[in-house]
């Protein structure tokens, strides 16, 4: 029995050591997207026809969703799933854990901004969008979310400027032209 107790102590100690290594190694996960590939995809996106744009957009989304860690990717997946299910509290919890463990990963902040927005928490959503855009100014999803929040809070003129910025990055973005036309009209312009 004494030998078993000693074995269990060693196993627990080894397990805690291993957990410590895993936590240490994942606490500073770097954003794993290929910067050269992203640059190429964004260049293609700005010149793409509508059919190509959809494919390129998906390639960009996939590339920007690479955290560099399977565990962090799982937190992102769980956070997104909870957001889609309307469980914003769980989503924010998963995504906050992701942000804590992968603070250089822009998509962590973008996903959490979406959950905050869906929960009606515009202040935290705007803060996370700011972090995303500081790290990846071409993030058309974050820009689109920013424009929605600006519209909903009555700042249509700035929202329109954000939409113009998206048009430079992703001119074929679905629904973008209609959003621009509606805001131009609302701000006293003429719809073409």
Topology:
Blueprint (H helix, E strand, L loop, with lengths): L1 H25 L8 H13 L2 H15 L5 H15 L3 H14 L4 H13 L3 H14 L4 H13 L3 H14 L6 H11 L6
Helix pairs in contact: 2-3, 4-5, 4-6, 5-6, 6-7, 6-8, 7-8, 8-9, 9-10
Describe this structure in words.
There is one protein chain. By secondary structure, this protein is mostly helical. It has a domain at 68-119. The chain is built from ten helices and no strands. It is globular. The N and C termini lie far apart (85 Å).
Number of separate strands: 0
Weakly predicted, low-confidence segments = 1-30
- Mean pLDDT equals 86
Q: What is the N-to-C order of secondary-structure elements (H for helix, E for strand)?
A: HHHHHHHHHH
Q: What is the alpha-carbon Rg in Å? A: 21 Å
Shape, principal axes of CA atoms: globular
- Characterize the largest beta sheet: strand count, sense, and whether it forms a barrel: none
- Helical segment count: 10
| Fraction of residues in β-strands | under 5%
What's a concise summary of this model?
This protein is mostly helical. The protein is built from ten helices and no strands.
Key features of this structure:
10 helices, mainly alpha, disordered N terminus, TPR_rpt, globular, TPR repeat-containing protein, TPR-like_helical_dom_sf, signal
């Amino acid at each position: 029995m004494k030998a078993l107790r000693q074995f269990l102590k060693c196993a627990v100690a080894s397990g805690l050591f291993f957990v410590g290594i895993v936590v240490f190694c994942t606490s500073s996960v770097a954003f794993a997207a290929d910067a050269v590939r992203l640059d190429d995809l964004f260049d293609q996106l700005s010149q793409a026809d509508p059919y190509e744009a959809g494919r390129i957009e998906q390639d960009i989304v996939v590339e920007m969703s690479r955290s560099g860690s399977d565990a962090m990717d799982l937190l992102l997946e769980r956070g997104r799933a909870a957001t889609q299910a309307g469980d914003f509290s769980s989503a924010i919890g998963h995504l906050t854990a992701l942000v804590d463990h992968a603070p250089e990963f822009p998509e962590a902040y973008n996903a959490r901004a979406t959950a905050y927005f869906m929960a009606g928490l515009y202040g935290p959503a705007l803060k996370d969008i700011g972090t995303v855009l500081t790290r990846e100014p071409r993030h058309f999803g974050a820009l689109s979310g920013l424009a929605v929040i600006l519209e909903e809070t009555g700042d249509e003129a700035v929202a329109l400027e954000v939409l113009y910025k998206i048009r430079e990055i992703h001119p074929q973005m679905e629904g973008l032209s209609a959003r621009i036309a509606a805001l131009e009209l609302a701000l006293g312009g003429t719809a073409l």
